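USER:
Working in pairs, take the chain set out below, taking as long as you need, and write a paragraph about the fold.
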Amino acid sequence: MEQMNYNLLFRWFVGLEMDDAVWDVTVLTKNRERLIAGAISQQLLESVLIEARAHDLLSEEHFTVDGTLIPAWAAARSFKEKSDPPAPGSGSPPQRRRPVAGGPGSGSKGALLLRDKVESSTDPEARLYKKSKTDKSVPAYMGHALIENRNGLAMAAEATEAGNAAERVSALAMLDRTVRPKQERDPELEITLGADTLYQEEKFIEALRDREVAPHLSQYTQQSSNLGKNSLSEAERADPRRAISQRKRKLIERVFGWSKLDRPLRQVKLRGLDRVDWFYRLTIVAHNLVRMRRLIPIEVLAR
């Protein structure tokens, strides 16, 4: 806001005349809540995809899905034991309207998990989570993205509470928003979905088969203790397109890398899932716009 007082370029960008009064910061805060309630970030993403589709930049058949941790605006020391944790065998009740991991009995045989016992006093919806056994648990949310494999443009995005099953639950939700049901699709359209080994879960693969989506997932190797989790059939492992999907997986890492490199998503300064989800989708929209600027010929943009 300080720049708005003397930087003419900033004033021009937001439509202020040289002698117009600069808004108070509370005006932006109130507008943010309105934008969140109106799902403006999702509408903006859909509008950008319409533009990309008009320039034939999107693949309607081949997709990749993945997730990334979004550091929450909370410290690990803010997590305190809950005064009224759920009873053993019940698990934590779901807190969000969106499908996320963490419903009743979310632990093995209904066992209480860490999130059932502790809660952040700063951001109650943040969770202590780590994606690797060698990492340290940090307060975080999880960002998910579904990209098409032609140019690496994000087709869907959302943020959820961090959890072991959150990536798979969100993958199916984003896929359903992006791909038509099998009864409405062109019979010649063969949908594929590439992903890493964290998606190697029998129920998830069955859900893809029910949607007639080819699971092009990476497999655990002989050196892994999770070898028994491999659930692809012989035909699915032998699918020649699977190797192509695995090579295309790097495109989604570019989306996450761009979003976190010297940008606010590296450390969000918002609290609450609704605000983080809104901001995450806006960041993904910005990535698509930057990517499309390089894909659309300058002659077309000048028209």
Residues 38-301 form one domain. The CA atoms of residues 156 and 229 lie 27 Å apart. DSSP finds eleven helices and eight strands in the chain.
